[in-house]
């Protein structure tokens, strides 16, 4: 099965969003929400992502599909802001996901050993 051009374009939406986040890093925090988030530092970005992740879970459990879609978009945005703040590029995550592709989740987790 081949992907349509629309699907291919959507596959890169996170990369485009990350590029926008990086571009906003130098914007005025008074006029850019993204610049404001980044200026607050990685810990605050992590806290905000955590809040959005909880809101996503609540939407999935009790608020229906539309709310889940909206909250998922918020969570992904804030995850990318966190990555930018922490110096993680999407390619780093895509590479790790590709490394895990085809490996049982149980086997992959076991390979990490005990924390």
From TrEMBL:
Subcellular locations according to the entry: Cytoplasm
Catalytic activity: 1-(5-phospho-beta-D-ribosyl)-ATP + H2O = 1-(5-phospho-beta-D-ribosyl)-5'-AMP + diphosphate + H(+)
Organism placement in taxonomy: Bacteria, Pseudomonadati, Pseudomonadota, Alphaproteobacteria, Futianiales
Protein species of origin: Futiania mangrovi
Listed name of the protein: Phosphoribosyl-ATP pyrophosphatase
InterPro entries in the cross-refs: HisE (IPR008179), PRib-ATP_PPHydrolase-like (IPR021130)
UniProt xrefs under CDD domains: NTP-PPase_HisIE_like
UniProt entry keywords in alphabetical sequence: Amino-acid biosynthesis, ATP-binding, Cytoplasm, Histidine biosynthesis, Hydrolase, Nucleotide-binding
Gene3D superfamilies in alphabetical order: MazG-like (1.10.287.1080)
Top-tier EC class: hydrolase
Cross-referenced Pfam families: PRA-PH
PANTHER family listed in its UniProt record: HISTIDINE BIOSYNTHESIS BIFUNCTIONAL PROTEIN (PTHR42945), HISTIDINE BIOSYNTHESIS BIFUNCTIONAL PROTEIN HISIE (PTHR42945:SF9)
UniProt family annotation: Belongs to the PRA-PH family.
GO biological process, one term: L-histidine biosynthetic process
Pathway this chain belongs to: Amino-acid biosynthesis; L-histidine biosynthesis; L-histidine from 5-phospho-alpha-D-ribose 1-diphosphate: step 2/9
GO molecular function: ATP binding; phosphoribosyl-ATP diphosphatase activity
Record-listed E.C. numbers: 3.6.1.31
Cellular component per GO, a single term: cytoplasm
């Amino acid at each position: 099965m081949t992907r349509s051009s629309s699907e291919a374009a959507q596959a890169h939406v996170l990369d485009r969003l990350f590029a926008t986040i990086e571009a906003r890093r130098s914007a005025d925090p008074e006029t850019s929400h993204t610049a404001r988030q980044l200026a607050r530092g990685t810990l605050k970005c992590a806290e905000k992502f955590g809040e959005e992740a909880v809101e996503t879970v609540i939407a999935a459990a009790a608020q229906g599909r539309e709310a889940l879609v909206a909250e998922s978009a918020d969570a992904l945005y804030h995850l990318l802001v966190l990555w930018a703040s922490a110096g993680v590029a999407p390619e780093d995550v895509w590479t790790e996901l590709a490394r895990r592709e085809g490996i049982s989740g149980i086997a992959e987790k076991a390979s990490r050993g005990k924390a």
